[in-house]
Specification:
Shape: globular
Helix content: over 70%
Number of helices: 10
Distance between the termini: 33 Å
Radius of gyration: 16 Å
């Protein structure tokens, strides 16, 4: 396994489109539920242990070689928000383009052919990790980090939050990211039926509200 490949895949500069998404932070800021570094930490922790764990399990499953068609169907069933399902497929489509350029692989080609409008992002990420020679826990680590890293970056822009404080939040959450990645990888090795299925209903509700805003900074 190449730890350098893991860094490339997890790098915020990897052209996978994540910079355009706030992970629900924009709606939380507008609602007044997220106003400072302490609020950011609570928000990120909640995301990490619910939708983050769920997505990490899907990515780990794809990296472990589970059926990507079945994983994509599971991702659809686990996500009740049409706006978030659409965002996940858009991100999956963008990630697929970047991954195929970085790590040409028959598995990526087959997934792209099967889902021309985009498979769900965690499934694509896990398939990309497998193409890069990475394992289930590596894929889960990528998801865990982006689950909290995306909102942290967004909140720096939305609130003008001190980026040092935002980075400190991520550092404090690092042990929990490790736990989530390990949990997801263990579940993935037991098969699709063992994958985590956490939910965050408020994120689903606010995603639908956010999608209807006429003016917004982030796509989701």
């Amino acid at each position: 396994m190449s730890r350098s490949a893991l860094l490339v895949l997890a790098d915020g500069r990897f052209p996978a489109g994540g910079h355009a998404h706030s992970g629900g932070a924009e709606a939380a800021v507008k609602a007044g539920r997220l106003t400072d570094a302490a609020g950011l930490e609570a928000f990120c922790r909640g995301r990490l242990h619910t939708v983050g764990l769920t997505a990490a399990g899907l990515a780990a499953g794809a990296a472990a070689g589970l059926d990507p068609h079945e994983l994509d169907a599971v991702a659809d069933a686990q996500n009740p928000s049409p706006a978030l399902r659409a965002a996940s497929r858009r991100l999956g489509r963008q990630l697929m383009r970047a991954a195929r350029a970085a790590w040409p692989d028959p598995g990526l080609d087959a997934l792209a052919a099967a889902f021309p409008r985009g498979a769900h992002q965690p499934v694509v990420l896990g398939t990309a990790a497998r193409a890069a020679g990475l394992g289930p826990e590596d894929a889960a680590h990528c998801v865990a980090y982006e689950t909290v890293g995306g909102p942290a970056t967004a909140v720096v822009r939305l609130l003008g939050l001190d980026p040092y404080q935002a980075t400190a939040v991520l550092a404090r959450l690092a042990p929990e990211m490790d736990e989530v990645a390990a949990h997801a990888a263990i579940a993935a090795r037991q098969g699709v039926d063992a994958l985590p299925a956490g939910s965050a209903p408020l994120l689903d509700i606010t995603a639908e509200q956010h999608a209807a805003w006429p003016v917004r900074l982030f796509a989701s």
